[in-house]
Amino acid sequence: MGSFTKFMASAIFFIVLSFFLVPTRTQEEGFISFVISSKGLEFSKDLLIEQAVSSIIPLQLPQIEKSVKIPLVGQVHVVLSNITIYNVDIASSYVETGDSGIALIASGATANLSMDWCYSYSTWLFDISDHGDASIQVEGMEVGVTLALNGQEGTLKLSVLECGCYVKDISIKLDGGASWLYQGLVDAFEGQIVSAVEDNISKKIREGIMKLDFLLQSLPKQIALDDIAALNVTFVGNPVFSNSSIEFQINGLFMAPNDDFASSLYNKGSLDPVPFNAPAKMVEISLHENVFSSVSLVFFKANYMQWVINKTPDQSLLNTAGWKYIVPQLYKQYPNEDMELNISVSSPPIMTVVNNGINITVYSDVTIGVMDADEVIPVACISLEIHASCSPDILINKLAGTVKLNHVTAYLKWSKIGNLHMHLVQAVLSTILKTVVVPYVNLHLWKGLPLPLPHGFTLHNSEIVSINSRLTIFSDVAIAERSPTSGQEDGTPWPVDGKP
Ligand SMILES: *[C@@H]1O[C@H](CO)[C@@H](O)[C@H](O)[C@H]1NC(C)=O
Ligand SMILES: *[C@@H]1O[C@H](CO)[C@@H](O)[C@H](O)[C@H]1NC(C)=O
Ligand SMILES: *[C@@H]1O[C@H](CO)[C@@H](O)[C@H](O)[C@H]1NC(C)=O
Ligand SMILES: *[C@@H]1O[C@H](CO)[C@@H](O)[C@H](O)[C@H]1NC(C)=O
Ligand SMILES: *[C@@H]1O[C@H](CO)[C@@H](O)[C@H](O)[C@H]1NC(C)=O
Ligand SMILES: *[C@@H]1O[C@H](CO)[C@@H](O)[C@H](O)[C@H]1NC(C)=O
Ligand SMILES: *[C@@H]1O[C@H](CO)[C@@H](O)[C@H](O)[C@H]1NC(C)=O
From what superkingdom does this record's organism come (predicted)? Predict the structure, then answer.
């Protein structure tokens, strides 16, 4: 394909892109949506170009040789070898999203090349040859690539629609030998060098995109939280391209690893656009409240919502003496005995995203036991309706939170120690929850939930907005400081592997 044709091809990119774009949303939706805004696309573009340039150079072009017929001299054999592009500078670049994909354009690029030259010719008297090196300057290089990004069986498929490289100007400067004499001769090779640069750079870009596609295909479908729960990060449907942003939908529910129990969480209202002035950040990660319900469901089903409490900061709360005035009957029957509380959550906690956080409702049973000669004697059981709220926070690249107890209501289920003053019992149990259970839960919450963020990136300047059953993180993204052990092992163009 000639340079002109390629130039036309890249001109067509713009025409395609300038169509009025209407995002379509008729597909299945996930519980987490991930939007890369125009600011995020800029960031990705710069990163991608930086990676592309460093993976292209040094680029060795094939040797060019040719016999040129020169009047009076005859056939001159010229060989240009060791042609190497060793530097590329990009003046400006931009990224556009279109109906079905992304266009990346780098323009005003320059490239520096070096090469060796030699020529030889034979006269009837003697053979003549000479050689030297040369520097080549390529200017006004335009590189354009349009990419399609589609969902494919839970992963993303990236493919090249168009890829073109166009060189506007080239200058060759020979050094060594009788270079002044042969400069004109070498200029005859300009066209060939230009097409070698154009063809080989386009090919390198296609190769880079294929590598990127391979990495996308090999992204894991789960991110483990621990050995109890994993986040299903399967992509759902196709990415939605709108004016300068891309939105991905991810299943986003937590599940027990390798166990796909049918979840009751598969119905939800659609994720309508958030009706407020969104902060201008690179990415927007939106989590439906069912994401939080799913994690509580997994832990509930794995029997992780039971605690036997036999130690508290105020140990008198766990001795019948401490309950003397609360339940006199208990003290009378078991004077000065240690006690144990078995708190057992009776149904998966209900999580709702409200303005400014998450409200949590937990129904649990507390069995009060008395320690009698190494035996636990259950003496009463109380049902608790616990209302708590959680303030979310970003911890590097995870979503952490702090739970605060708001209100506890206690009901008597059964008792072997007569009637209880429920408002007093409620106050004591509330204190125990606050001093023992809530700090324990917070310790776990501070480990954070994984977010579907590519490996090697962290969030910064994050803002969390919770509204309409959705918690949305608006954030900028930065490349994590890489530790020596987590470096790239090969020349992968993009540090993505999704591992937590
Ligand atoms: C090719 O060129 C580079 C620098 O221009 C030089 O270091 C290298 O030795 C050359 N290779 C050959 C095989 O001439
Ligand atoms: C590339 O060539 C330009 C123009 O000759 C020069 O200014 C620039 O320093 C060169 N860059 C490198 C890295 O050699
Ligand atoms: C590089 O360019 C030359 C000349 O246009 C062409 O013959 C060769 O196939 C190209 N190589 C690649 C890898 O594209
Ligand atoms: C796309 O967004 C840019 C600014 O971000 C705006 O200038 C342009 O008009 C928008 N185009 C459409 C089709 O909405
Ligand atoms: C993960 O999510 C995908 C897409 O919604 C779904 O098809 C798949 O069944 C889920 N995997 C498990 C193990 O639940
Ligand atoms: C705690 O109570 C639950 C439900 O009442 C029961 O299944 C569990 O065995 C009890 N645990 C202990 C250690 O008593
Ligand atoms: C969330 O919890 C707080 C504190 O208990 C309460 O004031 C608020 O009404 C709750 N919001 C919703 C929507 O239930």
Answer: Eukaryota
